[in-house]
Automatic annotation (TrEMBL):
It is found in: Cytoplasm, Cytosol. Belongs to the eIF-2B gamma/epsilon subunits family. The keyword Cytoplasm applies. The keyword Cytoplasm applies. GO terms for molecular function: guanyl-nucleotide exchange factor activity; translation initiation factor activity. This is Translation initiation factor eIF2B subunit gamma. It comes from the Eukaryota. Keywords: Cytoplasm, Initiation factor, Protein biosynthesis.
Length: 384
C-alpha cells in the first residue's frame, strides 16, 4: 500500500545499498556525493501519507530554515516507538512518546526529545524559551520521518559529528538544541568565536522556568543581534515544523501493530489510499477473484487479483493479497494474508499476519500469530 504518488524520472533514479545495521545518518553519508541541490527531502520508506512533500519543501524555503520536520497526530491505537508486543500485555512499560516544543505560532521547532517517558521531567534550553517567550509542549505529535534539510548544513553536521548515527535521535535534536548558538559554519564564521556559547546554566528543569522575561522576542532575535546591533552572518539557524492537518492521513509502518492498523485503515476510513473503489457491500473484490458457493466477504475487506476462495468461507475485516488459494470452510478474521498464500480446508485465521508464499495445511488454527514468508504450517497445527 502507498499513500503518496511520486512522479519519478526513473532514468535518473539511483539506488545505493548500505549494510542493514547502518543508521539513517550513516546512510546519508554514504550518498553524500549524490546530493547537489540546495535543499533536499529525506523520506522514510515506512511512511504512508497523503501529504504533498512539496508543502513541506515550500514551508522550509519560506522560512529559510536549516531543517523542517513534518509532524502529524500520533496513532490512537498504540505507541509507534515503544516496540511493545501485544496490546494485552498488562506488564509492559508505560508508552514512550515524542516530546515536542513549539513556538506560539506552531511554525518553529523549539524542542524535541524522542522516546522520553511522560512522567519524567525534561530539560529545555532556557535561552530558546526566553527568546520565544513561551513554549507549547506536545506529546500527541509523531515525527513522521519526512525532513527538508539545507544540504550544506546537513553535510557539515554529518562531517563534523561522526558519532551521529540517527537523523531522529542525533541530527535533528542537535540542530534544534543549537539554533540560538549555532556551531555551524556560515560564510566561514563560527558563532561561538563571537562569544555566543551556550552554558550549562541555560539548561534548567521545565518546572523551574520563569514565565516573564525581558529578552527580545523569538523573531527579533533572528532579525538582530542580542544587543540590537546588526547580526553576524547566520549566527543562529531556524528549525521549523510542518504540522499535518487532522484531515490528512499520516502513519508509519514500523511495527506489527501499526502494519495491521494501517491495513484496516486502507479498507476503512482511508480507503481512498488504495486506489480501488468499494462495492455496494463496502468491500473491495478484484474482478479476477473467484468466490466459491456460500462464501461471504464482509464489509471493510479486500480480496486481491487472481485469488480464489473455496465453498463456505467467511472473511471479516481482513485483507487477502494477490493469487492466494484458499480452500473450503476457511475463516479469516481481523487478519492480513499477503500474496501467493495457500490455505487448506477447514483452517481458521484470526488476528494474524501471514506473509507471502506461506502454506497452511488442512485444519490449521492460527490466532494472534505472525507467520514468516515461505513457512509451512502442518495439518491440524494450532498456534495462539
Amino acid at each position: 500500500i502507498t499513500g503518496v504518488s511520486w512522479n519519478f524520472n526513473f532514468q535518473h533514479l539511483q539506488v545505493a545499498a548500505v549494510p542493514e545495521d547502518v543508521g539513517t545518518a550513516d546512510a546519508l553519508r554514504a550518498i553524500a556525493h549524490h546530493l547537489t541541490a540546495n535543499d533536499i527531502l529525506v523520506v522514510s520508506g515506512d511512511l504512508i501519507c497523503d501529504i504533498p512533500p512539496g508543502a513541506v519543501a515550500a514551508a522550509h524555503r519560506r522560512h529559510d530554515a536549516v531543517v523542517t520536520a513534518m509532524l502529524c497526530s500520533a496513532p490512537v491505537s498504540g505507541q509507534p516507538d515503544s516496540g511493545s508486543s501485544g496490546a494485552k500485555d498488562k506488564a509492559r512499560k508505560p508508552g514512550r512518546f515524542n516530546i515536542i516544543g513549539l513556538d506560539p505560532t506552531k511554525q518553529f521547532l523549539l524542542h524535541i526529545t524522542a522516546g522520553t517517558e511522560v512522567e519524567k521531567d525534561i530539560r529545555v534550553q532556557k535561552s530558546i524559551l526566553c527568546a520565544a517567550g513561551q513554549m507549547e509542549i506536545r506529546a500527541d505529535l509523531m515525527d513522521a520521518h519526512l525532513y527538508a534539510f539545507n544540504r550544506a548544513v546537513l553535510q557539515e553536521v554529518l562531517d563534523q559529528k561522526q558519532t551521529f548515527q540517527s537523523i531522529k535521535l542525533d541530527v535533528l535534536p542537535y540542530l534544534v538544541r543549537t539554533q540560538l548558538s549555532s556551531e555551524l559554519l556560515f560564510s566561514g564564521v563560527r558563532a561561538e568565536e563571537h562569544g555566543n556559547d551556550t552554558t550549562q546554566n541555560d539548561k534548567v528543569m521545565l518546572s523551574q522556568l520563569l514565565s516573564n522575561t525581558s529578552m527580545p522576542s523569538f523573531y527579533e532575535l533572528y532579525a538582530s543581534g542580542s544587543n540590537g546591533s546588526t547580526p553576524l552572518p547566520r549566527k543562529t539557524h531556524k528549525c521549523c515544523a510542518y504540522i499535518a492537518s487532522k484531515g490528512k492521513y499520516c502513519a508509519r509502518v514500523n511495527s506489527i501493530q501499526s502494519f495491521c492498523d494501517i491495513n484496516r485503515d486502507v479498507i476503512g476510513d482511508a480507503s481512498y489510499l488504495s486506489g480501488y473503489s468499494f462495492s455496494t457491500h463496502n468491500n473491495i473484490i478484484h474482478p479476477s477473484a473467484v468466490l466459491g458457493s456460500k462464501t461471504t466477504v464482509g464489509p471493510q475487506c479486500m480480496l486481491g487479483e487472481g485469488s480464489q476462495l473455496g465453498d463456505k468461507c467467511s472473511v471479516k475485516r481482513s485483507v487477502i493479497g494477490r493469487h492466494c488459494r484458499i480452500g473450503s470452510n476457511v475463516k479469516v478474521v481481523n487478519s492480513v494474508v499477503m500474496n501467493h498464500v495457500t490455505v487448506g480446508d477447514g483452517c481458521s485465521i484470526q488476528g494474524s499476519v501471514i506473509c507471502s508464499n506461506v502454506q497452511l495445511q488442512d485444519r490449521a488454527v492460527l490466532k494472534d500469530c505472525q507467520v514468516g514468508a515461505g513457512f509451512v504450517v502442518t495439518t491440524g497445527s494450532e498456534y495462539k
